[in-house]
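F.,

This is the one I mentioned.
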């Protein structure tokens, strides 16, 4: 197998052992982006000279010489973030964002900027100033958003790892749609410096998108600025299952795959499954939506509203104007809901180690019409997806999406696991246990576009 087709950790190990040449790996990565990216529109810009400068100066860190894609939400010293939009309300400029510095100090090479859903305001990735990103499993389907490009880049094996951001599910949705492992870290644990909302957000985190949990563990540790997170076998795992819309109003194939995965995880860890109650999940979703919209008001004035770039999509323009109508009382109430749910989770995590439910209630919808068919009826993907994702952002707990199957149309299915504050390591332990339980069948599955045989 070529070095470019190796997992992230194996690329780093091969370079460290002198078995792979980092310069050749960079060249191969750029060549593959040129070859495969037109089909998926995952990478919106490469900068070979800057990447080679990073490689020449790279320290002998845990990712020395390994190519990484970074989401268009993070500035680089030579490029301001564009956020997938024709215009941002807050000014941006080139700079050393926290994720860039973390990657640089670990010896990694930023090889390209990943596409993203316009203004981060969608779970599908079908709207962007660069044009929609495409799902490598079926290029007429959504890759998920808003970290659409990073996920599509890893799924297409343009790179072995990418850095995304998650403010309302934006790492977990594309992980589920593209068959990847995506970690939304505990709030405040991963670097956020340089983000244009860093000073005001209570929801957004940086996080890794990789093929499997071990690669996520390595990349997350870099973003945390910590030694690699310890790994255990997650023995005796207590798994909490909530019988609510997040687990029941889902497509039958998603329900079946996730129920099977939960039982496999229980058996592998010698654990237990407990049905638990978590009231007010719907209120938590609404509170998270209100919070992120209120926090995005920075820079909004009547004059700016009248001067919005006409290239912004009608949906984005409508959302920006909607934010100005939010009553202060609703934001205050959202804070109360956050406090309530944090208390309930604190009590719940005394009895279970993880919560488990589907990451998304259906597989990837068409780019042209991102609608999903659920037992409750036809919903927009955004409306359906946020129900299962918002809790982790509102309360700050970590969450991970892991691949657990393929649906009838050959599209990936993801299971979301959530744990108590600071237990990012436990989530990755559980994800690795699930990989062992299914013989790594799903983390090693590749879309036809990324088949290793294509390199022969």
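My design for it:
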């Amino acid at each position: 197998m070529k070095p470019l087709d190796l997992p992230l950790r194996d690329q780093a190990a091969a370079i460290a052992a002198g078995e792979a040449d980092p310069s050749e790996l960079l060249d191969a990565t750029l060549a593959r982006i040129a070859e495969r990216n037109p089909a998926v529109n995952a990478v919106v810009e490469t900068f070979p000279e800057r990447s080679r400068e990073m490689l020449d100066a790279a320290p002998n860190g845990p990712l020395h010489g390994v190519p990484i894609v970074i989401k268009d939400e993070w500035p680089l010293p030579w490029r301001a973030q564009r956020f997938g939009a024709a215009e941002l309300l807050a000014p941006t400029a080139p700079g050393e964002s926290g994720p860039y510095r973390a990657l640089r100090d670990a010896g990694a090479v930023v090889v390209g900027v990943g596409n993203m859903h316009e203004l981060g305001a969608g779970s599908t990735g079908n709207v962007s100033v660069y044009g929609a990103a495409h799902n490598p499993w079926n290029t007429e389907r959504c890759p998920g958003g808003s970290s659409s490009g990073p996920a599509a880049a890893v799924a297409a094996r343009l790179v072995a790892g990418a850095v995304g951001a998650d403010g309302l599910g934006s790492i977990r949705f594309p992980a589920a749609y593209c068959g990847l492992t995506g970690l939304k870290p505990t709030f405040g644990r991963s670097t956020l410096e340089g983000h244009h909302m860093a000073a005001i957000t209570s929801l957004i985190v940086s996080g890794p998108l990789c093929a499997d949990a071990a690669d996520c563990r390595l990349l997350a540790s870099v973003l945390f600025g910590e030694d690699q997170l310890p790994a255990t076998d997650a023995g005796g795992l207590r798994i909490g299952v909530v019988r609510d819309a997040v687990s029941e109003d889902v497509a039958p194939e998603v329900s079946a795959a996730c129920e099977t995965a939960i039982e496999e995880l229980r058996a592998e860890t010698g654990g237990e499954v407990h049905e638990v109650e978590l009231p007010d999940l719907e209120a938590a979703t609404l509170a998270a939506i209100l919070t992120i919209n209120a926090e995005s008001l920075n820079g909004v004035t009547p004059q700016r509203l009248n001067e919005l770039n006409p290239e912004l999509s009608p949906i984005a323009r409508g959302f920006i104007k909607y934010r100005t109508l939010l009553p202060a009382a609703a934001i205050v109430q959202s804070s109360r809901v956050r406090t309530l749910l944090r208390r309930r989770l604190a009590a719940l995590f005394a009895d279970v180690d993880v919560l488990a439910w589907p990451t998304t209630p259906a597989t990837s919808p068409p780019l042209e019409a991102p609608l999903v068919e659920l037992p409750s009826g036809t919903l927009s993907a955004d409306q359906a997806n946020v129900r299962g994702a918002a809790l982790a952002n509102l309360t700050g707990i970590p969450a991970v999406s892991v691949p657990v199957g393929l649906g009838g149309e050959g599209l990936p299915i993801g299971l979301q696991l959530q744990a108590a504050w600071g237990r990012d390591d436990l989530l990755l332990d559980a994800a690795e246990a699930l990989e062992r339980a299914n013989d790594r069948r799903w983390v090693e599955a590749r879309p036809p576009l990324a088949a290793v045989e294509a390199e022969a």
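Residues 1 and 456 are 9 Å apart (CA to CA).

Talk soon.
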